């Protein structure tokens, strides 16, 4: 065990965290501001990955593949909001869960029909296929690019929410939508835009994750659960909270999976440590969420309203 391994896993945790943030940013706004429980958010992430893979196979350009994922997910989000979601805003959360769970099943079967049941692979772009030097340590250039993209989206999201008129309307609509509507603001259009932007960020996350994960049906379910943990820890409705919580969860999960088995080997038999370590590591983020809920139920970084 040396400093190089620790630094490498910190970067991996940071990279995983910013991917979680791309998903959590849209989900926390939809859940916190529109009070809509969208279990299909992971499916939008999956569809973004498939859009990117198809565009890359057709054009050979990773940049166009990312644009296709973002554009396709944006249009898909708008269509979903118009066809299904807008009719559910006034219903209770159980109806939200049942309807969006049905959408999850629909999209999983849709990708099996269109792309088949076998995983689809999206190649790392050639110009990011190497490694970069960070203070004498080499790290995959593509994974570092994911970190940069995630940080840029975080900055852009903060500026949008806190420094623009649209962000002001979003924050006001979260507190008193009836009053905002009475002032002449089209709340339905604002909600549709918010839902579509969240879908676009989920599609971007899918496109960025495609080259390091296999693109396959159902890939959005597991990451959705972790994303829900992120928004609970960070504070529902808080983009800033989603960012910090995503980094915390990403680092805790990555470091736990790497170092917990090693630590257990120091006090138990190797076979037991290798079997129990990964299982215990997978529980760490949920234990963290339980501690946060017991200590600070509103989350670590709740939205300021």
TrEMBL record:
Compartment list: Cell membrane
Chief location of this protein within or outside the cell: membrane
Transmembrane segments: 16-37, 66-85, 97-115, 141-161, 193-213, 225-252, 272-295
Membrane disposition: Multi-pass membrane protein
Domain of life: Bacteria
Family under the similarity heading: Belongs to the binding-protein-dependent transport system permease family. LivHM subfamily.
PANTHER family, per database record: ABC TRANSPORTER ATP-BINDING PROTEIN, BRANCHED-CHAIN AMINO ACID TRANSPORT SYSTEM PERMEASE PROTEIN LIVH
Descriptive protein name: Branched-chain amino acid ABC transporter permease
Organism of provenance: Polaromonas jejuensis
């Amino acid at each position: 065990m040396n400093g190089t391994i620790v630094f490498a896993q910190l970067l991996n945790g940071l990279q995983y965290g910013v991917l979680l943030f791309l998903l959590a940013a849209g989900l926390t706004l939809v859940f916190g501001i529109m009070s809509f429980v969208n279990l299909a958010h992971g499916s939008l992430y999956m569809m973004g990955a498939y859009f990117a893979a198809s565009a890359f196979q057709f054009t050979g350009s990773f940049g166009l593949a990312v644009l296709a994922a973002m554009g396709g997910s944006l249009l898909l989000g708008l269509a979903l909001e118009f066809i299904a979601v807008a009719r559910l805003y006034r219903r209770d959360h159980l109806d939200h869960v049942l309807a969006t769970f049905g959408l999850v099943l629909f999209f999983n079967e849709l990708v099996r029909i269109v792309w088949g049941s076998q995983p689809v692979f999206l190649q790392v772009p050639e110009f990011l296929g190497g490694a970069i030097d960070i203070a004498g340590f080499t790290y995959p250039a593509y994974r570092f690019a994911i970190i940069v993209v995630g940080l840029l989206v975080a900055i852009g999201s903060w500026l949008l929410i806190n420094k623009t008129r649209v962000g002001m309307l979003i924050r006001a609509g979260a507190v008193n939508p009836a009053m905002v509507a009475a002032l002449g603001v089209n709340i339905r259009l604002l909600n549709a835009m918010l839902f579509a932007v969240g879908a676009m960020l989920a599609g971007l996350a899918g496109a960025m994750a495609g080259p390091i994960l296999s693109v396959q049906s159902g890939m959005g379910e597991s990451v959705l659960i972790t994303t829900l943990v992120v928004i609970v820890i960070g504070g529902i409705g808080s983009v800033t909270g989603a960012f910090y919580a995503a980094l915390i969860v990403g680092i805790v999960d990555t470091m736990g999976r790497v170092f917990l088995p090693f630590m257990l080997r120091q006090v138990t038999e190797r076979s037991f440590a290798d079997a129990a370590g990964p299982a215990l590591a997978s529980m760490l983020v949920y234990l963290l969420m339980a501690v946060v809920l017991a200590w600070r139920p509103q989350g670590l970084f709740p939205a300021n309203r």
